[in-house]
Amino acid sequence: MADITKLESELWEAADELRANSKLSSQEYCMPVLGLIFLRYAWGRFKRVDEQIDAERAKIEGRKPPKSPADYTAKGAMYLPEEARYDYLVNLPDNEDIGKAVNDAMAAIAKDNPNLQGVLPDTYTELGNDILREVLRIFNNKALDEDGDDIIGRIYEYFLNKFAPLVASDDGVFFTPKSLVRMIMNILEPAKGTMLDPACGSGGMFVSASDYVRKHGGNPANTMMYFGQEKVDYNAKLCLMNMAVHGMQGVIKSGDEANSFYHDAHELEGKCDFVAANPPFNVDKVKWSRATDAGRLPLGMPKENKKGEVSTSGANYLWINYFYSYLNDEGRAGFVMASSATDSNAEKQQRRKLVESGDVDVMLYVGNNFFYTKSLPCTLWFFDKGKPYELRDRVLFIDAQRYHTAVSTTLNEWTPWQLKNLSAIVWLYRGELDKYTELLDEYRSFAAGCAPMFGDEASELLNLFEPEDFVQAHEAMLRHIEQQKADAKAKVEALPKREQKKRREALAKETERLEEAATVMADAVWLAEKFGLGEYADIAGLCKIATRDEIKGDQDADKSSWSLTPGAYVGVPPVEDDGVDFHERMHEIHEELLALQAESNELLDAISKNFEEIGL
After folding, report:
1. How many CB atoms lie within 10 A of CB 460?
2. Are 69 and 112 spatial neighbours (Cβ–Cβ below 8 Å)?
3. pLDDT value at position 167?
4. pLDDT of residue 506
5. Dihedral in degrees, nearest 10, Cα atoms 250, 251, 254, 258
6. Neighbour-count burial for 556-575, b at 16+ CB within 10 Å, e otherwise
7. Residue 541 and residue 399 in contact, taking contact as beta carbons nearer than 8 Å
């Protein structure tokens, strides 16, 4: 597995070298660099899908139909003509004009993809052949293909985020991390219909929706229609490029007409099956008169301040109004929102309307450090106008701030298994036991697959691996790993010094594989200990199904805050007993403090005497 952080840094240094040597401004070199990443990303997806198509065609007896661009689109890739394939460009002879060749590649892609006309960069002849060739070579790092789409997708996302500060028009604009987008899709469950993102940025919601549809056996090219609004033209271009790479098409509008505060650019009010977005938070300077004239405010009008503008909290609720208003009678919405919006006092009557409508489905609190460029927490909101009758007066609250994986000291994410576990809570709330059972089967299958890696005790438990065995299996795995580490250390120390480093690295990789398997099993334990074979339960500090009356509270309706803050309902997890006697430990701390004070007094006396001796 590639060191993804190191790889990201190396590729970014190569991209920045292009700026330094070509004397371009930051704005000028963003698109050419992202265009090269676009080509490499498209080539990676094309190769993988091409192999899949060849494998399927090999099973066909008799005459085989020729490959078509539609074959690639159906599998989530963009068909690339020969002159636009990355290996063709990298292997051009030194005497070729590489800048012209890249421009021609972009033109060939745009010819086959009308949505990309005028979108792809075409200024490569201005960059200089030598530096452009070098960057192309560096971007062709084989490590980008090691983990398939996940790693190249993350590199693309990393570059988008590195450029984000250069193109964001206000502090509320930032890219959405994949784990949040995937969580939204897991709860929305798109299958077919119209999807709108009225703050679409680089198109991550659309891409994730298509991935979800394919994963569940559908072809989004046939079943989904995507519409986006993005007021920053630069971001709209990235969106079209991102969608094209994944074999998708959509109608994306940008510029003034796409400012969602003032325009319903696609005239989709009341027509959407799905709405998904990460809008800019806490935006100021929204003109009250223009926003109210633009309508789409079923929850109520925002308040006007002395400047004739909408307050920042009111602007958040403009978005919430829009997402709700775009849904048809069965529509679902999922979006990211500033956590302050769940209980802001000025908008409590709008929350009341939402709760009383019965359309609030799930509220999921996300802790700090999920965004690349921001450390703020947020909340994922979910509406469902097609909720079954038995859930109309209930809302599922989830507080996930204690459940995540730390990628670094400043970045958290949900792993694929953690995403499944959080989704499982929603399935049980909705009564979808079959999905929960399928997840348990996935864990069983994974356990059986990794059983041969472990000793007899763990292997036997992993092959059984029923929910009641999860804890014992995981503990056995951890014991095996500790023994493995001890054995590895002994093996290395028994070798001549010149051989130790290589052997230590090999054994460390083996241990890493075991630890990764144990981490997955830890998630299985997390799930099974809480919900067993599939029975929903409110878990303190994690989840609670609250009724409409509980959300209203004991006060009368006019005084209630109608809070939608998950923490207000789920509470805090019970404190685990660490086996330490509180009073005894406090006595020990008091004695330690007295001893430290005595030492401090002795030190001060010694310093004073020393000053006296030197006449001070």
Report:
1. 15
2. yes
3. 47
4. 87
5. -120
6. eeeebbbbbbbbbbbeeeee
7. yes
Looking at the fold, whether 239 and 388 belong to one and the same domain comes out as: yes
Dump the DSSP string for 104-155.
HHHHHHHHH-GGGTTTS---GGGS-HHHHHHHHHHHT-GGGGTTTHHHHHHH
Query: What pTM was computed for the model?
Result: 0.84
pLDDT at 524 over 90: yes
> What's the number of domains the chain is made of?
4
**What is the rounded distance in angstroms from the CA atom of residue 196 to the CA atom of residue 173?**
18
Is residue 394 a contact partner of residue 420, using CB atoms and an 8 Å limit? no
Range of the domain at 610: 585-616
Q: Are residues 286 and 359 in the same domain?
A: yes
Which residues are within 8 A (CB) of 544 and not within 5 positions of it... i.e. 6 or more apart?
Answer: 396, 397, 538, 569, 570, 571
Report yes or no: 201 and 171 within 8 Å, Cβ to Cβ. no
What stretches of 135-234 adopt beta strand conformation (E)?
193-197, 224-230
Higher pLDDT, 492 or 216: 216
Residue 373 lies in a domain: yes
Question: How many residues make up the chain in this entry?
Answer: 616
**Cα(453)–Cα(509) distance, rounded to whole angstroms?**
13
Mean pLDDT, the chain, integer: 87
Which residue type does 352 have? Answer: R
Stretch (H or E) spanning 354: helix 348-357
What is the C-alpha to C-alpha distance for residues 303 and 344, in angstroms, rounded to an integer? 13
Six token digits for residue 546: 């609250």
Cβ distance 98 to 132 under 8 Å?
Answer: yes
Residue 147: which CATH number?
1.20.1260.30
**CA–CA gap between residue 423 and residue 551 (Å, rounded):** 23
User: How deeply is 516 buried, as exposed, middle or buried, from its count of CB atoms within 10 A (0-12, 13-18, 19+)?
Assistant: exposed
Alpha-carbon radius of gyration of the chain = 28
Show the CA angle centred on residue 287, arms to residues 282 and 293, nearest 5°. 115
Maximum average pLDDT range among 72-81, 552-561, 571-580: 72-81
Closest CA to 321 of 302, 305, 345: 302
Q: Which among 522, 503, 308, 514 is positioned nearest to 403, based on CA atoms?
A: 522
pLDDT at 146 over 70: no
Is the same domain home to 206 and 340?
A: yes
Question: 171 pLDDT band (50/70/90 cuts)?
Answer: very low
Nearest to 286 by CA among 258, 257, 316, 251: 316
Compute the CA torsion angle 48, 53, 58, 60 (nearest 10 deg).
160
d(CA 145, CA 141): 8
pLDDT tens readout for residues 389-448 = 999 999 999 999 999 999 888 889 999 999 999 999 999 999 999 999 999 999 989 988
104 close to 98: Cβ distance less than 8 angstroms: no
